[in-house]
Amino acid sequence: MPHSHDEADHVHEIESRFSRNEPWPADPAWNTEPSMLEALRVMDSLPRKPIVIANHPSRSARGLGDYGLYDPAELRDWNDRAPEVATGMAGAPGHQAVTIARDGSIENGARGGYARHPTMGGFDQMTARLGGFWDSMLGEGRRWWITANSDAHVNWREGGSDFWPGEYSKTYVLAEQSHDAILEGIRSGRIFVTLGDLVSEAWVTAEASGDRAETGGTLRVRAGEDVRVTIRVRDPEAPNHGGRSPTVSRIDAITGDITGRVADRTTDTNPTTAVAARFTDADWSRDGEMLEMSFVIENVTADFYLRVRGTNGDEPEPEPDPRGEDPWSDLWFYTNPVFVEIDGS
After folding, report:
1. Closest listed residue to residue 111, CA positions, set 171, 169, 198
2. Residue 318 within a domain
3. Is the model's pTM score more than 0.85?
4. Residues 72-97: pLDDT tens digits?
5. Are strands 250-257 and 218-221 parallel, antiparallel or unpaired?
6. Considering the domain boundaries, does residue 31 fall inside one?
7. Is residue 345 predicted with pLDDT exceeding 80?
8. Does 21 map to a domain?
9. Which element (helix H / strand E) includes 286?
């Protein structure tokens, strides 16, 4: 919610009119998609718009692509109703310390509380699945961003399942240090997310004919031009809050075609998505903690998006997380996309 003189009044209005926990006795009519869409309409009408991010979107999923409380059609409806309010989802859920006992030993829990179908490298299947739901949204040209949060209720040291905010999951936003600037940075997708301090900076730049765009931005090019992509990340030497200093072992640049809005709103795949370039320590240059790598996408003839991920492990794709996994051992980071569009398209 934007910081303003009316902030408390706006929060009170939204919660008192639309929170499913407001009525007593409970009334299931308050917990419906039409009610959510009306709430988004009201939020979108405010003079200073808030931001709504779908939290742990697949925690109730029964399998891969077998969604529960949130499904692709509903999230598309949110974004259509209020594209400047419903801007994305939690790519990595909170409750990542559920496998850590109070004494620091590892227990047989499911990361993120995803007991029905697991996270993948600590990330929700809607984000982690290559060519999955997130890619289907980006392939429509939607500015649908991912974030990460701790969802801190009770810290693991106190018998809970959570890390403190910023202890494990981090969302980095490129913005000045003000309420409005941070919200605008989130709304504009100038974001990368990381687990376990795998990286502390991530810069993605696409360039053509002297023009450039960075994470969350759009590069306009002429048909047939080449696009140079440069990736720079900081792999910090200092230990994280788990007392470890993980090392980036691989970075993937992922692309997918932008083909327009889909007819089937339940779509959760984008078959054009692929790893366009894969980098290891043999491929990047290092300057202290900074790693830099680049490649060229030649002869661009159609709109596409580019996003980047990286890991400290050796899995070609993030695998389902087994119960009892040490969350500090399997780390990933993801950037939000850069869009490349053909002039006149």
Report:
1. 169
2. yes
3. yes
4. 999 999 999 999 999 999 999 999 99
5. unpaired
6. no
7. no
8. no
9. strand 285-287
